[in-house]
Amino acid sequence: MSVVLYEMAHSPFCIPIAQALTACAVEFHRREIPNWDRRELLRLTSGAYYAVPVLQHDDRVIYESRANSQDVARYVDVTFAQGRLFPPALDGLQAIVIEFIENEVEDRTFKLVDIHYVPAIADLAERGMVVRHKERRFGRGCVDQWRQNAAAIRADVDRLLERFEITLRHSRFLFGEQPVYADFALFGIIGNLTFRGYNQLGQTQQALARWVELMNGVRL
After folding, report:
1. Domains and CATH numbers, the chain
2. Cα–Cα distance list, 71 to 6, 62, 77, 147 (Å)
């Protein structure tokens, strides 16, 4: 069996897939895709998709069919996790929580990463391509604006994370004693936020910090 995860290591959407595969004891190869060069993804998907994650399992290539889908995660669930990531009894609640994590929270956290990640790209042309991609979506000078507003953005992030901190003070995982995909999604957001030590969890987020340690060793 061959399993390859095409990823960007800092991506909040790739980290959950890598961690879920690890939790399922799946041996897989990680293929880093340069943020400024998506040609390999386009070739792999016959021009249909250029984002990450993309999962190749033997001859199958799995990628997201639409915005806010979890096609890759659900494939991992059905193929390797025996349905533990998306138990039917939690479908509605998980959809609400995952959408909140992947939209409201991620919309803030990635900015606190990009203000470090983008300037760290050594090659000027490669950095310029990433900046161009960001500015086409968020407006000219967006990275500088995020840097100037970093304190306010972090305060907003902490406000959004507070509900998870409270939950995890009283529960081993978000929905009880076993992790589901919402846990992996949140793990991806925090993994992105703290990538390369760019940001850290705060003193008031100790339950989240304990949960991160737990997630790092979780097995399904």
Report:
1. 3-80 (3.40.30.10), 88-216 (1.20.1050.10)
2. 15, 7, 10, 33
Determine contact, residues 55/76, Cβ cutoff 8 Å: yes
Q: Which of 172, 175, 163, 153 is nearest to 212 (CA)?
A: 172
111-125: burial string, b at 16+ Cβ within 10 Å, e else: bbbbbbbbeebeeee
What digits encode the pLDDT tens for the residues 18-71?
999 999 999 999 999 999 999 999 999 999 999 999 999 999 999 999 888 899
Strands 29-32 and 60-62: unpaired
pTM over 0.90: yes
Question: Which residue type is seen at 43?
Answer: R
